[in-house]
Amino acid sequence: MLIEVAHYLSILATGLFFLCFLFAFILSAKDIFVINLVSRVYTHGFLFLLISFLIYVWLAINDNFNVLYIAQHSNTNLPTFYKISSIWSAHEGSMFLWIVFLCLWGVIFNLFTKNIQDLKAKSLGVISFVAVGFLLFLLLTSNPFLTILPIAPENGADINPVLQDPALAIHPPILYLGYVGFVIAFAHAIAFLVNGDPSIKWESLVRTWSISSWSLLTVGIALGSWWAYYELGWGGYWFWDPVENVALMPWLAATAFVHSLSVSIKSSLLRIWTILLSIIVFSLSLFGAFIVRSGIIDSVHSFANDPERGLYLLGFIAILIVISTILFSFRLSILASKRNIASFSKESFISINNIIFGTLIFSTMLGVLYPLIYEYLYDQKISVGAPFYNAIFIPLTLIAGIFLFFSIDSKWQRSVKIINFLSPMSASLLIAGASLFLINYFLAINDYSILLSVFVGILILVRYMFVIYEYLFKRKYSNPYSIIAHLGLSILIISIAFNSEFSSERALNIRMNESDTYRGYDIKFDDLRLEKSSNYDAVIASFILNGSDGRNFILKPEKRKYFARGQITTETAIKISPLKDIYMTIGDQLDDGSWIVNIQLNYFIRWIWFSAIMMAFAGLMLAYSLVRGKR
Amino acid sequence: MKIILRAILITLPILFFTFFYLYINEDKYYPGADFRKFEMPIFKINSLYDESNISNNDLKGAYLVNVWASWCITCRVEHGFLSKLSNEGIPIIGLNYKDKKDDAISWITKFGDPYELIIHDLKGELALDMGVTGAPETFLLHNGNVIAQYRGEVNKMIWNDVFMPIIEKEEIFNND
To answer: Within 13 Å, how many C-alpha atoms sit on residue A555's CB side?
Structure first.
């Protein structure tokens, strides 16, 4: 009964959002009466949607297996936490959550923005339009409210065991929040283009929203990477999986966008870039949804699917993007700036950054599309992997890093003579060069791209140390959030370089009570136990590792077989230390009784996620300071 | 100059989406479908109802083999369509997958039996040999070979788009 109420409320919300869109674009948006109307209709639409979603969550918590989706993805034995997260463990429910988040951003914007804001009504109209499109997608092609009548199954099926994990329970919501948060920037860009008045500063209206979305997107991607590492047993931080790529593209675009945004806010320069990037960020987010949901690409993320969904999404996204580009191309003239950008100004460096990031996005897109185009033309499956992306990302990131180094003391809107900053610059160069020499001397790295990456990383790091010194002791103003975020970047570059240089892995073939050695570790296969848990059987191996440094510890990798789906999962065992992870997984038993055991040494891998968290933290702090500054 | 820029800006996304449209519509794209032909593995497993054995000899001619289990919710959803197929004269063999005998029999009693025979594959051995990854899956068997396979729920759309073309091509199930 309740499920029908939830279903009905969602339909009602769709109708209200559609009305909101109509009011915003048909009635005169300058009229304060109209803006009030649009704002209220939107809030009520959201309220219905929220109640509908809350009812759904309540049904999931209470094991209402009359609902087909809940019966298929939840189980009476699950803890409540996973009963809730089972909602976003598959297509229909996660789409529902996606839409709720989209509208949530809209409603927060609606409630915290005064009705006299120039673009408010039209922006809400655009958000409503997007919401209507996706709600129709939900209700028509992937309805989570379907019921099985008359007899409900007793216990339900089960959530996929690899999803029964805290990181995964929060990875999708945070990622979705990041993705759909850019709807605010997109909506304002469209509203600005429709409005056509170049004096409206739409950029400053969306800054806080965009930076918080960017931070959430960063955290979401890092969480996904971490989950794949320890729960899926992938044993690394990034695999250029197509679905990772479709998450990376919006992130790259968003990074370029938030940089470009600060230029446009300060000086109305780069407005074309800013508008274009805001459209691109949101389009890429939607494109990601399309790739994942249409099942075009096989990956851990592809949901069971049918082609109708792909077609619908494709059509709707096409409408959105084509309308946006047409609008954009006809409003080019109001966006063009009459002034030139001074060389060696902050603006000049940020435009270079835009070009580099644009190239990265384009190349990633090429890597994602090329196998599809090839398959379409020649009917053969190929894949584009790490070598392609490395060849593009390493040099371009390093070039961006070098430009960042030179840009650190540049000023807004005027050129600065580098001579003025010669001393910190040459000092950083010296220190970075010296540390590179030492690193090379003690660690004997032969790979030039690694050496160069470490050099650039240290260069940025040391340069920022000087900036921090001046900030703290000479009271010279710098943007603290920018410092933290870019320090994060330098740590990211250094740790990725070290990680790819030093990490190694080997598959051991080992029997009970035998020993083997790997990279200074004596590994003794000590014990093997069978254990029964409430919803799975486990084989738990136990290894005693003796390090050459005298430290020893036990690692217990596991293999589990879940009853409900018969699925077999590997549970990794990881020994964490500041510099490296020792990572073990257990494979199959061979006929001669020995086991295949995989051991990896992953250097600096924690630092990679830490640097992502640093960037996100800087973004959130900046957003917070902007919100506080407004009051 | 401006016109060219405009034209490029507008054509690019249109080209992009046309490609995806063509790609999806090429052969209606079903990730669950597989047409690689392989020989039906040799097996000898108990029937669900009694201790009698079912083996390859019982599957001569053309059959659908449907992998199901009482714990599988999607099988419950699929059940209606299978019953319809069965009424239309399509012979279906059930492969009961990793299921308790009592559960399976009470499920069949409750919802009806669309199957001519039900193989009780308690340990999933035959299913493993056939490359089953989960329930439900449906195989099209012709003269000892599996010629089509679908992972997931078979419904009217899947039947018409995945199975019918190959059934018509191979001219099977034509006797009635």
So the answer is: 26
